[in-house]
Each structure stands twice: as C-alpha cells, then as structure tokens.
Amino acid sequence: MIEIKNVSKLYNGSKGLALKETSLALEPGEFIFLVGPSGAGKSTLIKLMFREQLPTSGEIFFENRNMADYSKRELLAHRRKIGMVFQDYKLLKQKTVYENVAFALEVLGKSPKEIQKKVPEALEKVGLSQKKDKFPKELSGGEQQRVGIARAIIKQPVLILADEPTGNLDRDNALQLMKLFEKINKEGTTVVIATHAWDLVDRMQKRVVALSSGELMRDEQGGYSNNE
Ligand SMILES: Nc1ncnc2c1ncn2[C@@H]1O[C@H](COP(=O)(O)OP(=O)(O)OP(=O)(O)O)[C@@H](O)[C@H]1O
C-alpha cells in the first residue's frame, strides 16, 4: 500500500535530520504501531504518509504511485483515502457530535441523503448513537476521540493514520480505543498508530516499528521493546 524508500527528512531551519534513510513497506490490512522516544520521527513519518510534508530525499509510493509526482487532483484523492486521528481530537466546538461527523462528508460534496444514512452507521460503530446531539464539551475525552474516529471512518478510508490518539486518555479509555482501532482494522482498514503507550502496545501484540533519532531501529511483531 505504502512503500517508503530510503527517505530522509530535513525541516527548513533545522540542523539535524528528522528521518534518516528510512525504508518501510505497509501492506493492506496491517495494524502497525510506530514507537520511539519524543523526537524520534514518528509524527514526521505520519506527515509524510499523508503528504503534509515531502521527503528531502528518497521516495514514497502509495498504491505504486510516487507521491512526489501527484497532481493537485491526485493529492486530494490521496487525502480522501486516508482518515486522520489526532491526539487533541480537533473537533468543531460549535457543532454537535452528529454535525462533526456529517461535516467530513459535507466537505466532500456528498448528498444529504448519503450523509443521513452514513452518519448514524458511523456513530453506531463507535458506540456513540446515544450522544449524537451532544456538543464536544459535554463528552469525556474517550467519547471525544470516538467522534474523531467516526469522522475518520465515515470516509471509508483505506488507511487510518493516528498520531498519539490516546495521549490525553486514562488507561481504560485508551485500551477501549485501541480495541476500537482493532475492530476497524479487522473490517479491512489498514491502521498506523504513533504512540508512547508502551503498555498498550505490549497488550495488543501487533507489528511494531521503532524509531530513535530518525532511524528505524526495529520492525517486528510483538510488544513495545524486544527484551521481553
Ligand atoms: N516543523 C518542524 N520544523 C523543524 N523541526 C521539526 C518540525 N517538526 C518536527 N521537527 C523535528 O524533527 C524531529 C522529529 O520530530 P517528530 O515530531 O517527528 O518526532 P516524534 O517521534 O513524533 O516526537 P513526539 O513523540 O514528541 O511527538 C525532532 O527533532 C523535531 O524537533
């Protein structure tokens, strides 16, 4: 699905490389944790996959197309295929749960009929049907992130990129969210999660890609660290 080939990233005005000659292939249907200390390059890798950033050197292929060669239209199409989930949820405060999720389809120009059908399905999937008329400030952190996930999955993305999605949640809520990501993955969506939550990574037993100072240190199935 995504092939990252020998990619380095140097941000403007920065001295050191955020990513150093990193290569990585993601297959459709995988569930991958990106782990590593602060500044390791996890968010950079996610931004490159969304094409929010371009590599300084190396290439990234999405479904066999070099992402650096995208036209404007292809870039939009790329982003439509990807659902983003953020640590701070990024919900619209003045909109209800229903309206937040509907908005993701409105901006894609979908018909009211399709929106009316799909929003309840997405809310059902994340267990928030009862809270559809609440505003974000009336929800717990875990519930707000479920709205964030409903908003991501309603586009029926092939890939979900989540940057520290459980960073603001307690352990129980965080585990429930990971289980929700697992359910979505089992239904066919590829999932990539950057996280510091080593205990959850240990518990989930998925593919773990570990970065340190921009370098890929480890890539294997299992827990957070390799000395267990
Ligand atoms: N926009 C930017 N401009 C300059 N340097 C940046 C920028 N974004 C990130 N960096 C630098 O790139 C390196 C990698 O950062 P990145 O955010 O990818 O790490 P991370 O593993 O996601 O860290 P964290 O766990 O703290 O989110 C860091 O040294 C960081 O300071």
From TrEMBL:
Keywords recorded for this protein, A-Z: ATP-binding, Cell cycle, Cell division, Cell membrane, Membrane, Nucleotide-binding
Domain ABC transporter stretches: 2-228
Membrane topology, as annotated: Peripheral membrane protein
Molecular-function annotations in GO: ATP binding; ATP hydrolysis activity; transmembrane transporter activity
Domain of life: Bacteria
Annotated compartments: Cell membrane
Record GO biological process: cell division
Main location: membrane
Coiled coil regions in record: none
A GO CC term attached to the entry: plasma membrane
Function: Part of the ABC transporter FtsEX involved in cellular division.
Oligomeric and partner information: Homodimer. Forms a membrane-associated complex with FtsX.
Family note: Belongs to the ABC transporter superfamily.
Protein name (database record): Cell division ATP-binding protein FtsE
Gene that specifies this protein: ftsE
